[in-house]
Amino acid sequence: DPAGRLAAFDGEAVLAWTDFAERARDSTLYSAGSGTGATPIFVTMRPDAAFPLAGERKFVRFNGEGRPPAGLSSSARNAAKDFPFGTGNPEAKRGLTFAVAFFQEVRGRQQTLLHLSGATGSVALRLGEKGEARLHARRIGVPETAQAPVIAIAADKFNPLEPLIVTGTWSAHPEQLALRLRSASGKVEKPAPVKSPWPSDALTTLIVGRDPEQAGKPKDPQTLHAFAGGIAEVLLYSTALNDNELGTLENQLANRYFPKAK
Fold it and tell me: Sign of the C-alpha dihedral, residues 210, 83, 100, 59?
């Protein structure tokens, strides 16, 4: 493209993942580390009986290994007000919506698909040891008893090894956190939303494929909850979509990645 960025081919390292849409404000995700195992790979996945897809689809694959393991990150830079919970939206509309189309390779440990944080809060979409989906949200400075409980969708509710679409919302008004999951074979899970205090400033730093580095073992894949699997799309909105809007988004993603229901 005019900026000199090159497309990746199958098997090549993904050093940057760019959204070319004008409204994206150059929200490019860059490789969060260097060295063997620290960079995800571009792959083409093909459908089969155990892995239902609508056809050949491209994924950015994380191997869950390496020291540090593969990860991609982005910062809002000068566009913080337009990020989730930023002042670019009136308070009544502040919030977050995310959507991730992915597959996981269960490795018997916690994994992190995405982690979004700012000065006053954070939210993380994680996978448990059995492949269950878990949504964590925290408002910094709020007592633990007032924090939102973790929303979880147990792995016995869907096939963890199929392609999946997980969406979530975090809204200021109402103060609410919600998680939804749809699998390629048609399973749909929508746990009840929970009350959640919301961050008073923008969530400006996004990390995909692992948690932020932690003290003690900053390069350890298990400490960083490294993700093993592939991600086709990561979508972020700076408002919490309502049920109808979220349903439309899910349907669009499902039509793109999942085979049509028989």
Answer: negative
* Secondary structure class of 252 (helix, strand, coil): helix
Report phi then psi at 245, rounded to 5. -65, -40
How many residues are listed for the chain in this entry? 262
Q: Which of 49, 41, 50 lies closest to 230, judged by CA?
A: 41
What is the rounded CA–CA span in Å between residue 95 and residue 240? 5
Report in angstroms the alpha-carbon separations of 222 from 69, 146, 211: 9, 28, 10
Of the CA atoms within 13 Å of residue 122, those in its CB half-sphere come to 15
Average pLDDT, 10 consecutive residues per value, the chain (262 residues): 62 84 68 77 94 96 90 83 90 95 91 95 96 96 93 96 97 96 95 96 94 76 92 94 94 95 72
Report d(CA 128, CA 113) in Å as an integer.
11
Contacts of 64 (CB under 8 A, 6+ apart): 70, 105, 107, 111, 221, 226, 227, 228, 229
Of the candidates 80, 175, 67, 193, the residue with the CA atom closest to the CA atom of residue 135? 193
**What are the b/e assignments for 195-226, b being 16+ CB within 10 Å?**
ebbbbbbbbbbbbbbbbbbeeeeeeebebbbb
DSSP reduced 3-state for 155: helix
The values of phi and psi at residue 28, to 5°, are -70, 135
Of residues 45, 58, 42, 46, the one with CA closest to residue 9: 42
Collapsing DSSP to helix, strand or coil, 249 comes out as: helix
Q: Is the pTM of this model over 0.90?
A: yes
